[in-house]
Amino acid sequence: MARRPDHELTAQVRPDGYLELLSRRTGKRHRCGPRGTTMWLALQRSGWQPELAADEIAVQLGVDPDSIRCDIEAWLAHFRQAGK
Question: Is the pTM of this model over 0.70?
Fold first, then answer.
């Protein structure tokens, strides 16, 4: 199921390639390494559809999309929990 990020969340890919997420509502800030940045960008391009994002990344890396899908779901669950 597609779920867009909270409208209070801002995202910026920094010059060092790290993604910085900031919740204006809570003031919490999180930096993601290259793997998280890749997932965020793929999710954004796929209309926030984890399955499509996993397929995109799997093609780029030449790996099984199911393993990427599990990583994306775990990554998203982490942020859903943090946003509560």
Answer: yes
Is 6 strand, coil or helix?
coil
β partners of residue 9: 23
Widest CA span in the chain: 38
DSSP notation for 36-80: HHHHHHHHHHTTS-HHHHHHHHHHHHTS-HHHHHHHHHHHHHHHH
pLDDT tens column, 6-15: 677 888 889 9
pLDDT value of residue 51: 95
Strand order in the sheet with 29-32: 9-13, 19-23, 29-32
